Amino acid sequence: MRSSWTRFEVWLSEHWPEGLAGLNPPATDEQIAGLQEAIGITLPDDYVACLKIHNGQNPDTGGLFEGSEFLSTDEILAQWTVWKDLLDGGDFAGIHSDPSSGIQSDWWNARWIPFTHNGGGDHLCLDLAPDASGSAGQVITMWHDSGERELVAPHFGSWFTSYTKRVFSGDLVYSDEYGGLIDREDA
Question: Could you tell me which residue ranges the Knr4/Smi1-like domain spans (predicted)?
Fold first, then answer.
Protein backbone atom coordinates (compact mmCIF):
# COMPACT_ATOMS: atom_id res chain seq x y z
CA MET A 1 0.00 0.00 0.00
CA ARG A 2 2.80 2.40 0.92
CA SER A 3 4.58 2.11 -2.46
CA SER A 4 1.33 2.69 -4.39
CA TRP A 5 0.56 5.77 -2.30
CA THR A 6 4.09 7.13 -2.68
CA ARG A 7 3.89 6.88 -6.45
CA PHE A 8 0.37 8.39 -6.44
CA GLU A 9 1.59 11.27 -4.26
CA VAL A 10 4.39 12.01 -6.75
CA TRP A 11 1.85 12.03 -9.58
CA LEU A 12 -0.43 14.36 -7.61
CA SER A 13 2.45 16.73 -6.85
CA GLU A 14 3.02 17.09 -10.61
CA HIS A 15 -0.57 17.08 -11.88
CA TRP A 16 -2.78 18.27 -9.02
CA PRO A 17 -0.78 19.76 -6.13
CA GLU A 18 -3.96 20.95 -4.40
CA GLY A 19 -5.18 17.35 -4.34
CA LEU A 20 -1.99 16.25 -2.67
CA ALA A 21 -2.22 19.10 -0.15
CA GLY A 22 -5.82 18.10 0.62
CA LEU A 23 -4.92 14.60 1.80
CA ASN A 24 -5.32 14.16 5.54
CA PRO A 25 -2.52 12.87 7.76
CA PRO A 26 -2.60 9.20 8.79
CA ALA A 27 -5.47 7.93 10.90
CA THR A 28 -4.45 7.10 14.42
CA ASP A 29 -5.03 3.69 15.95
CA GLU A 30 -7.61 5.39 18.18
CA GLN A 31 -9.52 6.82 15.19
CA ILE A 32 -9.58 3.45 13.45
CA ALA A 33 -10.61 1.62 16.62
CA GLY A 34 -13.31 4.22 17.29
CA LEU A 35 -14.76 3.76 13.80
CA GLN A 36 -14.71 -0.02 14.07
CA GLU A 37 -16.38 0.12 17.47
CA ALA A 38 -19.06 2.55 16.27
CA ILE A 39 -20.01 0.42 13.26
CA GLY A 40 -19.41 -2.91 15.00
CA ILE A 41 -17.15 -4.18 12.22
CA THR A 42 -13.46 -4.97 11.88
CA LEU A 43 -12.16 -3.32 8.72
CA PRO A 44 -10.00 -5.30 6.27
CA ASP A 45 -6.25 -5.06 6.82
CA ASP A 46 -5.55 -3.55 3.38
CA TYR A 47 -8.02 -0.76 4.02
CA VAL A 48 -6.65 -0.10 7.52
CA ALA A 49 -3.17 0.14 5.94
CA CYS A 50 -4.56 2.79 3.58
CA LEU A 51 -6.09 4.80 6.44
CA LYS A 52 -2.75 4.67 8.25
CA ILE A 53 -1.24 6.51 5.28
CA HIS A 54 -4.04 9.04 4.71
CA ASN A 55 -7.21 9.38 6.76
CA GLY A 56 -9.20 10.46 3.75
CA GLN A 57 -9.08 13.95 2.37
CA ASN A 58 -10.33 17.42 3.13
CA PRO A 59 -13.83 17.47 1.56
CA ASP A 60 -13.21 20.94 0.10
CA THR A 61 -10.30 19.65 -2.00
CA GLY A 62 -12.29 17.93 -4.77
CA GLY A 63 -12.86 14.37 -5.83
CA LEU A 64 -9.76 12.20 -5.51
CA PHE A 65 -11.46 9.01 -6.67
CA GLU A 66 -13.23 9.62 -10.00
CA GLY A 67 -14.84 12.81 -8.76
CA SER A 68 -15.69 11.34 -5.36
CA GLU A 69 -14.33 12.31 -1.97
CA PHE A 70 -11.97 9.89 -0.23
CA LEU A 71 -13.70 9.62 3.15
CA SER A 72 -11.97 10.08 6.49
CA THR A 73 -12.89 7.88 9.46
CA ASP A 74 -15.25 10.63 10.69
CA GLU A 75 -16.93 10.94 7.28
CA ILE A 76 -17.21 7.17 6.89
CA LEU A 77 -19.11 7.07 10.16
CA ALA A 78 -21.28 10.03 9.15
CA GLN A 79 -22.24 8.47 5.79
CA TRP A 80 -22.70 5.00 7.28
CA THR A 81 -24.94 6.45 10.01
CA VAL A 82 -27.23 8.12 7.45
CA TRP A 83 -27.75 4.77 5.72
CA LYS A 84 -28.05 2.85 9.00
CA ASP A 85 -30.73 5.25 10.26
CA LEU A 86 -32.71 4.78 7.03
CA LEU A 87 -32.34 1.01 7.31
CA ASP A 88 -33.41 0.98 10.97
CA GLY A 89 -36.33 3.27 10.13
CA GLY A 90 -37.68 0.72 7.65
CA ASP A 91 -37.05 2.83 4.55
CA PHE A 92 -35.70 -0.18 2.64
CA ALA A 93 -38.27 -2.75 3.80
CA GLY A 94 -39.23 -4.92 0.85
CA ILE A 95 -36.84 -3.13 -1.53
CA HIS A 96 -34.10 -5.11 -3.23
CA SER A 97 -31.19 -4.19 -5.44
CA ASP A 98 -30.11 -5.77 -8.71
CA PRO A 99 -26.62 -6.93 -7.74
CA SER A 100 -23.75 -8.48 -9.63
CA SER A 101 -22.85 -12.01 -8.64
CA GLY A 102 -21.27 -12.13 -5.18
CA ILE A 103 -23.33 -9.24 -3.74
CA GLN A 104 -26.44 -9.57 -1.60
CA SER A 105 -29.66 -8.15 -3.01
CA ASP A 106 -30.19 -5.72 -0.13
CA TRP A 107 -30.87 -2.11 -1.05
CA TRP A 108 -28.31 -1.27 1.61
CA ASN A 109 -26.56 -3.42 4.18
CA ALA A 110 -25.04 -2.23 7.47
CA ARG A 111 -21.92 -4.21 6.57
CA TRP A 112 -21.34 -2.13 3.44
CA ILE A 113 -18.78 0.47 4.51
CA PRO A 114 -18.59 3.56 2.28
CA PHE A 115 -15.09 4.86 1.55
CA THR A 116 -16.01 7.36 -1.18
CA HIS A 117 -18.87 9.81 -1.58
CA ASN A 118 -19.82 11.81 -4.65
CA GLY A 119 -21.91 14.35 -2.74
CA GLY A 120 -25.14 12.91 -4.12
CA GLY A 121 -25.58 9.77 -2.01
CA ASP A 122 -23.47 7.39 -4.11
CA HIS A 123 -20.51 5.43 -2.79
CA LEU A 124 -17.90 2.83 -3.33
CA CYS A 125 -18.19 0.46 -0.38
CA LEU A 126 -16.25 -2.31 1.25
CA ASP A 127 -18.69 -5.23 1.23
CA LEU A 128 -18.26 -7.17 4.45
CA ALA A 129 -21.47 -9.15 3.91
CA PRO A 130 -21.08 -10.76 0.47
CA ASP A 131 -23.32 -13.54 -0.71
CA ALA A 132 -21.93 -17.08 -0.93
CA SER A 133 -20.08 -16.47 -4.21
CA GLY A 134 -18.48 -13.19 -3.08
CA SER A 135 -15.57 -12.42 -0.80
CA ALA A 136 -15.54 -10.30 2.36
CA GLY A 137 -13.86 -6.96 1.70
CA GLN A 138 -14.78 -6.80 -1.97
CA VAL A 139 -15.37 -3.31 -3.40
CA ILE A 140 -18.88 -2.62 -4.70
CA THR A 141 -20.90 0.31 -5.99
CA MET A 142 -23.84 1.64 -3.99
CA TRP A 143 -26.11 4.11 -5.81
CA HIS A 144 -28.78 5.90 -3.80
CA ASP A 145 -31.37 5.97 -6.59
CA SER A 146 -30.51 2.90 -8.67
CA GLY A 147 -30.69 -0.75 -7.71
CA GLU A 148 -27.55 -1.63 -9.64
CA ARG A 149 -24.79 -2.98 -7.37
CA GLU A 150 -21.59 -3.77 -9.24
CA LEU A 151 -18.59 -5.74 -8.08
CA VAL A 152 -15.62 -3.46 -8.75
CA ALA A 153 -12.71 -5.39 -7.21
CA PRO A 154 -12.13 -8.46 -5.03
CA HIS A 155 -10.62 -6.32 -2.23
CA PHE A 156 -9.51 -2.76 -1.49
CA GLY A 157 -5.82 -3.34 -2.25
CA SER A 158 -6.55 -4.58 -5.77
CA TRP A 159 -9.01 -1.72 -6.33
CA PHE A 160 -6.43 0.89 -5.25
CA THR A 161 -3.69 -0.66 -7.40
CA SER A 162 -6.01 -0.72 -10.41
CA TYR A 163 -7.14 2.86 -9.76
CA THR A 164 -3.62 4.24 -9.55
CA LYS A 165 -2.61 2.35 -12.72
CA ARG A 166 -5.45 4.14 -14.51
CA VAL A 167 -4.13 7.46 -13.18
CA PHE A 168 -0.55 6.73 -14.26
CA SER A 169 -1.66 5.57 -17.72
CA GLY A 170 -3.59 8.80 -18.32
CA ASP A 171 -7.03 7.17 -18.29
CA LEU A 172 -7.89 9.41 -15.33
CA VAL A 173 -6.97 13.10 -15.38
CA TYR A 174 -7.41 16.16 -13.23
CA SER A 175 -10.28 18.39 -14.38
CA ASP A 176 -10.53 21.95 -13.11
CA GLU A 177 -14.15 22.00 -14.32
CA TYR A 178 -15.08 18.99 -12.19
CA GLY A 179 -12.65 19.77 -9.39
CA GLY A 180 -11.02 16.37 -9.21
CA LEU A 181 -9.81 13.28 -11.00
CA ILE A 182 -12.18 12.02 -13.67
CA ASP A 183 -12.19 9.69 -16.65
CA ARG A 184 -10.22 11.27 -19.51
CA GLU A 185 -13.21 10.78 -21.85
CA ASP A 186 -15.35 12.99 -19.56
CA ALA A 187 -12.79 15.82 -19.35
Answer: 26-162
